[in-house]
Amino acid sequence: MSNNRKGITLYLLASFMIIMWGSSLISTKYLLIAGLNPSEIYIIRFIIAYVCLLAFTWRTFGVRSWRDEVIFFLCGLFGGSVYFIGENIALTLTNTNNVGLLVSTAPLLTALIARIFFPEEKITRGVVIGSVIAFIGVGFVMFNSSHAVEINPLGDILALAAAAAWAIYSLLLRRVNDHYDIMTLTRKVFFYGIITSLPLAFTFDNHLTAEIFSDPWVWFNLLLLSIVMSMCCYLIWNKMVEEWGPIVSSNWIYLQPIVTLIACAIFLNESISLIGGIGIALVFIGVVFAGIYDQIRDRHKASGTPSAG
Predict the structure, then answer these.
(1) Could you tell me if 13 and 182 are in contact, meaning their C-beta atoms sit under 8 angstroms apart?
(2) I need a surface site. Which of 166, 229, 243, 249 has the fewest CB within 10 A?
(3) pLDDT at 176
(4) Who wins on pLDDT, 37 or 1?
(5) Structural domain span for residue 90
(6) Does 3 map to a domain?
(7) Residue 302 has pLDDT above 70, yes or no
(8) Residue 26 forms part of a structural domain
(9) pTM passes above 0.85
(10) Structural contact between residues 237 and 106, judged by C-beta atoms closer than 8 angstroms
């Protein structure tokens, strides 16, 4: 019973995480309109999240070996600065639909990279089929209100690179999450995410003015992005990777465009078309299929009951 409760709790936390990440576009957009640039938003939110985690984990700084420290550095680089800043810059260079669709290839890229470099990671038929169904659904969702496709090579390459960076982060995380508690591990990722993003901060014009920070809604959105959408959601994600593995966990990313679509409909009065509704259904089917197909097949095999496929 305790295992069932633990599993249900993690599913609920994963759902909360996706809702937060899918809604983060609204907070980020507000801060961009207020005058902050993508690099400033990322660095500030990670510094606040790091300080909060440090308050709980200041006693644990040691690592098992320098190899673990290198893995933490790479996790911070790929899962922090490269992913977030790459995605935000891509949004300024190419169509938003392109970015959303290309970033959503992270689960497929996770499976592909795992197959090449991490053969010990299990890639099952259910995960592959579910991923393909969900990815098709994401395509429908992203073109909910626009059927135009624009080719902008640099922006599209950056968006794809961001997806690949998240895939690499998830797979690298698997190498260390059995040896460190989740809070310490996440703090290390945030630290190196901040360090590796500092050089990029000098490529943008500085917009940190007293006038911007006099707006209480700027602080509200910064704290929401930092404490909830960064610290809490990264803790949940890292726990998901620990319990389910990077490949199964990555399929949850397909749900993000659905949350964004619904959030825009609620807060920005954007409509959901028939094609968007079909996309939502396909994403749910794909994610559920990826999560339960192999479990059902294994139970049938254990009970001796034949199953299709």
Answers:
(1) no
(2) 243
(3) 87
(4) 37
(5) 22-303
(6) no
(7) no
(8) yes
(9) no
(10) no
